[in-house]
Structures are given as structure tokens and as C-alpha cells.
Amino acid sequence: MSDTRRRVKVYTLNEDRQWDDRGTGHVSSTYVEELKGMSLLVRAESDGSLLLESKINPNTAYQKQQDTLIVWSEAENYDLALSFQEKAGCDEIWEKICQVQGKDPSVEVTQDLIDESEEERFEEMPETSHLIDLPTCELNKLEEIADLVTSVLSSPIRREKLALALENEGYIKKLLQLFQACENLENTEGLHHLYEIIRGILFLNKATLFEVMFSDECIMDVVGCLEYDPALAQPKRHREFLTKTAKFKEVIPITDSELRQKIHQTYRVQYIQDIILPTPSVFEENFLSTLTSFIFFNKVEIVSMLQEDEKFLSEVFAQLTDEATDDDKRRELVNFFKEFCAFSQTLQPQNRDAFFKTLAKLGILPALEIVMGMDDLQVRSAATDIFSYLVEFSPSMVREFVMQEAQQSDDDILLINVVIEQMICDTDPELGGAVQLMGLLRTLIDPENMLATTNKTEKSEFLNFFYNHCMHVLTAPLLTNTSEDKCEKDFFLKHYRYSWSFVCTPSHSHSHSTPSSSISQDNIVGSNKNNTICPDNYQTAQLLALILELLTFCVEHHTYHIKNYIMNKDLLRRVLVLMNSKHTFLALCALRFMRRIIGLKDEFYNRYITKGNLFEPVINALLDNGTRYNLLNSAVIELFEFIRVEDIKSLTAHIVENFYKALESIEYVQTFKGLKTKYEQEKDRQNQKLNSVPSILRSNRFRRDAKALEEDEEMWFNEDEEEEGKVIVAPVEKSKPEDDFPDNYEKFMETKKAKESEDKENLPKRTSPGGFKFTFSHSASAANGTNSKSVVAQTTPATSNGSSSKTTNLATSVTATKGSLVGLVDYPDDEEEDEEEETSPRKRPRLGS
């Protein structure tokens, strides 16, 4: 590969007049047959691809800036720049360009050459046959000078000649002396002419002139000239703002005078570009490209000089983290770092890498951890911006820090948990800060930007850490707002500073809904929404929507980690409580979460949904929505349509067997009839298979002893562990109802073993030819891992205390139709169920067939 002298960065100027980095490579000058001339070629150092192929055109003006830059225009609105790593490489290529154009390499700008037709045309004009003759710099000549400057702007060659004349004669300083005289004499007409002159000189777009105009000696007079716009009735007071209002704050004294001068210059030039100069017209857009470049490369130099002064940065960090530092000082320090990081975006990638590594070495992340937890809103906002720069630069660096930190600190003070707490406690009614922090969290937990090496896998290590140490903090508002447990709410309110609204206290717990075949009031379609928990506070609803968006992202991109968490916390049931929210956007977020889970077509999730009867709140929401044709209606229909199109058999059977009576009246779409058709076709196929089995085998088709049932149930609860090899989520306290899901199931199985004799008595008994009736103790509370003992034919609502109970007042009586492989289905004409229905306290359609 070529030596470092030829190493360059290619930039192009975009429509917003900002320089875009096109890549790093090595430059050479060679003859290109296709272009029929000497050309500049830049090949990428990564793969050798061609980054730039540009013919050195005799009539193109090249500019050499700051010893390591060559800038030129390829076309009318297409500017290019080569930034060299070393001055020697820049000089070498500059000599090649000057050689092709027949210029002396000592010049910093090569002149535009024109074709013969233009030459003939301009030769008739005496002022263009040589350098433009400038009028003498006197008060009575100002109008003539202004007309001359304005007239040359439309011609590139005349602009070039005027720039050379201004530079050679030291004309700008003479003009600024006239400005002082006009101001002292209050010569308004002369001041208006000077405005036009100085504005025109800026539009000449020449770096050599900018060096003079923006020097400490001249810049305030240049600003003064630009105050006297003829279009304004009164002059602006820009100098007063720059000298009195705008204060230069040194958080730590800067001893380098050159650095101080460069900072002042950059601020003032940026002010001229952004505030003083009018927005350029379409025809003037390209006039200020060099001014943009001037600011850009000044910022690069400032960052480089600060970065090299490690004593300065060390002192800044020391004061930032010192407890004795007062609030005002700390605010200034944080704002300095925010500005510092913003300037760093102008650096080339390799320099930017070095910049952020320097900050990391000095301890930027521990410092952010401190300031992000402070009460000052301004400080927290600036710290969030700095954190966003770091995450954008290197998510892996942030992840590595927090995992190392976890070995020495409690969960409460981990950086990621501090970030989550700031998201939860955002006081902005629109949650602007929370949205920004949520995006950063998503970047940190995105497996796509996690590294895999031979020694370790960042993905598994970090996700293990996140689910063990951080996920409980993220889901705390969600679990609390969908819980009726007062202790849980009090804990949350004590732990977080922000006050949350909890409304709609439930009369029945939705964390333990019963299967569809039982006769619970909780199981009636269209039940009163006031009986459920739902956050009515708009800000709380917005926060929950953000958390759900992040959890939905986890379902899509994480595998067994989120699956274990959903099962352990019975999370989907808690999320679906939000289907009752008065805020439709929140109900849609809950539905989207379920849709992503179903979209995975994972049978483990499917069994979890069917055993927990988790379609009930979705169907209730659809029926409560009535005939309104809105987004909620369409989203629910799409969910069922997906199940039908993808032919997810277990979900299809569950929906048709338990909810078809409530849905069959919906005829404006064919989705539910289609589900019924799919279900019946599958049933016919299974019957045909069954009929092919000899009758002596078929008679005992559904005789499964207690041990077989026990093994099947245990397999369902343990399948997640078998798939991934281990449970990632750490065991949680048993005192919380949502934590009992997997652990107490072993006690449930022990109870069954102790009752083997009773189980044998409850073996299936033939109730009609070809059918069997099962007394099955697997209620929803059992599905959620609570100990239960079935009591047949109870009709009172299920208890919802969430603790391990010895009795559950619900039993599921289900029957199997003849010839079905699924032995647990209801007969629609079951007489026993009809009797139970008559005793139900409400007369509403039931969520069962």
C-alpha cells in the first residue's frame, strides 16, 4: 500500500453546504486514457475500490488551504476536497496540478482559464485583459467600488481577477479604514455602499481574503460594515452583541493563546454566516462554500488542540465529578463537553475514534453516571446529548463499561439503570427526553451492532447482564400499572421520584384469568371496563407505550432471553390489561406486542397463549369497539387474518373452539369464517387418519394416565430450558404473584403425586358413544404456576390473591369429540354446561363454544 504521505480523506459538499466524508484512501496522479488527460485517483484503503477519479482540467480553479487541503469545483454545484494526512503529500499533488495547468506551485489558487470564444469576448473589455484596476480607496469612490464588486459576481474569471487585485494591494484594510471614517462622520450613504462592498467580497468565496477579513484586527469592522444593510430602517447592533452580550466562558482557563484566538474567530465567523448574512438565493448558494469550509476546518483544529492538551481535559473531568463543585460551575462544565462532542463530529473517522477513546480513558462514562442523576434539568439534558454521541460512536464501549461496573456496584446505580430511570421520570408532558433515551437503549440492546469474537460473544454476555440487572427496572411501571397489589405500587412510588396515577381499581384480578370453559364473571364478553386496571393519565400512557415499543423490539430481536422473561412474569397477560385503556394508542401498543409474539409462529408461545386464554382481552376489545371502523378494529382483524393465512393450527383450534360463537356474527370480513373452515378441514384430516387406525387401537385413543398428563405438562413448562440449555432470568422472589409462574409448578406436581389414588378415580369415563369427559385441573392459575386443587362444578369467580393456594374455585370440564386428536374440546350442546350457564349472574355471550 502507498505510504502515509498519499493518505487522504475525500469530502464532497452537500446541498446543506456541509462537507460529507466519502472515505479514506490513497491518492495518485496518473494519465487516464478514458478521460484523455492527467487525473487524480483515490482508491479506498479498505478494499481498493475507486473513491475518486477526477481529470485535472486546465480551466478548473484549485485552492490549497491550511497546508493539507486541496479544494476545487467539478461542476456548478459540486465541490470536492482532499484532506491529506501529511503536508508533504499535499505539496506533492499540488505540484502535479500546477504542472498540468502551467502554474507556479507557490501560488495557493490556480486561476480559471477560459475557452477561445470567451477569451475573444472578454478581450474586448479592457478591464479583463489584465488584473482589474481598482479605483482609489476614497470616500467619493465608494459607489464606483460597490458597482464594480457587484458586477463581477456573475463571471467566475472576473471574480478571480478581482480577488487577486484585492489581495495584492491590501485593499480590504483600506476599505475598513474608510468604514471607521464614515461611521465617525455618520455618512449613511457611504456606510450603505460599504455594506454592498464587504458583502460582495465575501461572495468572492476566496480563502485568502477570508484570512484577512477574519483576523483579530479586521473582523469587528467587517461585522460593523454588515450592520448597515440599506434594506433596514435602522442598523443592527451585531458588534454590541458580540462584545457585550455574548460572553466567552472558560470552564478551565485556556493558556494557549492560539487556541483562544481560534475559538473566538470560529464563533464570530459562524455568527456572520448564520445571523448576519441573508439567506443566499439559488444563484448565490455556491458563493459561500469556502466560508463553510473555513468554519469546518477551524472546528477540526480546535478539537485537535484541546484533545492534545490532556492536562486541560483532566482538570475538567476532576471538577465535573468533584462533589464540592457548585451547580452553576457543573452546568458550564457539562455544556462545554456537549459543545466539545458536537465539534468532534467534524473530525475524520480515525481522529474521531482517537477523540472518544481519549474521553473514555479520562472517565467520561462514570462522570455521566453522576450528572445524569442530578436534579438540574439543564445538566441532565446536556448529559443525555453527550451520552447519545458516545452511544452513536461505539455502543460496544458503553456496554463493556456497564458490564464491568456491574461487578462492583448495586443494580440501582448502574449507568443503564440511571438512563432507564431518567426515561421513566421525564417530566416533559410530551416525553421528549424519554423518547431520545428510549432510542439510545434500543441501540444498546440491538444484537445487530454487537460483536462476536473467538474468545467471547458480546451478544450473550450483554443480554444476560441486561435481563438480570436492568429489565426489572424497565418493566416496573408496566407491571405496577397493571397490578392491584398495593405493596407493589407503594414500592414503585417510593423507588422513583415521579408521581404516577393509578386509576380504575379492579374488582377482579386479570393476572389469573380462567380458561374459557369455566363460568367466571371475568370470562364474559363485553364485561365492564371499570373492573380492570388501566392507566388513564396521558403521560403515564405515553411512557407505557414507549416501554412496550422497546419490549416489542426485544421480542423481534432477542430469543430465549425475552421468552424466559415473558413466561416468568406472565408478561403478555399484564400487557393485555392495557387493551382496556381509554387511550387507543396504548391499546394498539399492547396489541402490537402480542402480534409480534404470534408473528414468530413459535409453538411454545402459542401454548402459553392458549393455556392462559390470552385471546380473551383482544376479543373483548374487538366486541366493545362495536361497528366502528377504526385502526383498533383493523389491527385486531389483521391479527386473526395472519393466523388464518399462516394456518397456525393450535391457535386456530383454540379460537374456533372457545370464541367462535361470539365472533360468528362478524360478516363484513371473511376472516372468522375462514378460521372455522380451516379448523373443520384440519378436523376432517385428523378423522381420516384416525379411521385408518384399527378399531382395537382406536378405542383407547384418549386413555392417558396421570403420569402421561404429568409428563406433558412438565415438558411444556420446561421446553424453554431444553431449547436454550439454561434459564437466563435469575429466580425471583416468590412473594410477588407474577413471579410464581415457573417455580411453584414443582409443588403443584408434588401435590398431584400425593393424590395418585384420587387421580385414578378421576380417569375419563365414557359419557356418550365415542366420547369421553375429562375432569381437568389445569386452570389458568395452574398454567401460571400456582398450586391448585380442582373442585368440580364450582361457579364462583377465581381467587386472585396471587399466592400459592391449596384450592382454586374453578374447574374446567372439557370433552373430546369422536375421532379428534385434540382430546380437550367442548361439546357445544353439553347439557351440564347449559345448566351452569343458567346459574351465571349475567346474561352475556360467553367466551366459549
From TrEMBL:
GO terms (BP aspect): DNA damage response; gluconeogenesis; positive regulation of gluconeogenesis; regulation of double-strand break repair
Region Disordered, residue ranges: 752-849
A molecular function GO annotation: protein phosphatase activator activity
Domain PP4R3 EVH1-like, first and last residues per copy: 5-101
Superkingdom as given in the UniProt entry: Eukaryota
Coiled coil: none
SUPFAM superfamilies cross-referenced by the UniProt entry: ARM repeat, PH domain-like
Protein name: Protein phosphatase 4 regulatory subunit 3B
Basic and acidic residues bias spans: 752-764
Family of the protein in this entry: Belongs to the SMEK family.
One Pfam family it belongs to: EVH1_PP4R3
InterPro entries in the cross-refs: ARM-type_fold (IPR016024), EVH1_PP4R3 (IPR055236), P4R3-like_central_dom (IPR006887), PH-like_dom_sf (IPR011993), PP4R3-like (IPR051137)
Species name: Rhinopithecus roxellana (Golden snub-nosed monkey)
Ranges of compositional bias, category Polar residues: 776-818
A cellular-component GO term for this protein: cytoplasm
Acidic residues: compositionally biased ranges: 827-838
The Serine/threonine-protein phosphatase 4 regulatory subunit 3-like central domain, residue ranges: 144-681
Stored PANTHER family: ATP SYNTHASE GAMMA-RELATED, SERINE_THREONINE-PROTEIN PHOSPHATASE 4 REGULATORY SUBUNIT 3B
